[in-house]
Amino acid sequence: MPEPEIRELRYFRAVAEELNITRAADRLGIAQPPLSRAMRQLEHRLGGDLFDRSGARLALTTAGETLFKESGPVLDALDSAVRRTQRAGQSSRGLVVTAKPGVATELLHHLVGELRDVLPGIEVVVSGFGEQADMVRDGRADVALVSRPFDDHGLELEELYTEPRVAALPAGHELASKDVLEPDDLAGIPAPRWSRANVAERNYWSARPDDPVDGPIVQDSSQLLEVVAFGQAIALVPRSMAERNVRPDVVYRPVTDVEPYRMLVVWPAGSRSSNLAKFVEAAVKHSSEPPAAQ
After folding, report:
1. Which of 98, 110, 224 is closest to 167 using CA atoms?
2. Where are the alpha helices (DSSP H) in 29-122?
3. Domains of the chain
4. By 3-state DSSP, what share of the chain in percent is helix, strand and coil, each rounded to 5?
5. Mean pLDDT per segment of 10 residues, for the chain of length 294 residues?
6. Dihedral angle, C-alpha 97, 99, 104, 110, nearest 10 °
7. CA 9, CA 5: separation in Å to the nearest integer?
8. Distance (Å, rounded) from C-alpha 29 to C-alpha 11?
9. How many beta carbons lie within 10 A of that of residue 33, not counting itself?
């Protein structure tokens, strides 16, 4: 039996996500009849129905749910391979480095300054929370500076440094009178939620992961500090971030027994790029101490 074509799998995922042939056809930019025929052809190739067509709207069968779950990583891997291959074939290709604003970009400024002559054409992409590892995996970046926690499958990594995290709280908060806080001091107090954070990331940024209280959703460190200043949450932040963001309406206090902030450099598993090796070597050499202490 012929194997499914990549085009058919992409069509299938559009129909599975929309559960409506007309909307899926519009999304794909094709007419409805060819899309319907493609789905029937795919079902014939696989030997079973992927959609339940008996109701008022489409629904996935058990086989359809399985294909939807399994086809996503396959297509993502293919797209990543295409991107990496295209980038590898560019004659004037420079190293693409990504990091999110804050502690990571502070370090990246130092590294780019040091490596401009060694790695001409180095390109920096400032990315959002939680995007860095995915960008390296799918070929949009060659290397990233990223903090734990994150999904490291398909990546190689080197830990650059660790540093304590401290609590950022409004200057007038009752806990500001204490020199050192304990996690129990923060019981019942909202913590900011990073946009798109998963459970592990949410727990990491809470002083009490077994009993978290969700505060406002934030996109970056500037927004986080404003949320704190307005008394909407108390946040755990790297000590170096606190040292760089001294302001009258926010105070910082040490917190005992919280996991430290960890900065790592990550790259695709198995990469043999000499430019990548130079960047990693420079990052390790430069990072014997956190950025604020250098």
Report:
1. 224
2. 32-46, 62-88, 103-115
3. 6-88 (1.10.10.10), 96-148+263-293 (3.40.190.10), 165-254 (3.40.190.10)
4. 45, 20, 35
5. 83 93 92 93 92 90 94 82 67 78 84 85 86 88 90 90 94 94 92 82 82 85 93 94 94 94 91 87 78 43
6. 30
7. 7
8. 11
9. 10
- Token readout for 156 is 């190689």
Specify the pTM: 0.67
CA gap 247, 133 in Å, rounded: 32
Give the residue carrying structure tokens 């990491």.
204
Query: What pLDDT shows up at residue 291?
Result: 47
Place of tokens 């891997």: 77
- How far from 138 is each of 74, 81, 147, CA to CA, in Å? 12, 7, 18
CA atoms within 13 A on the CB side of 84: 20
β-sheet bridge partners, residue 124: 97
Contact 143/265 with Cβ under 8 angstroms?
Answer: yes
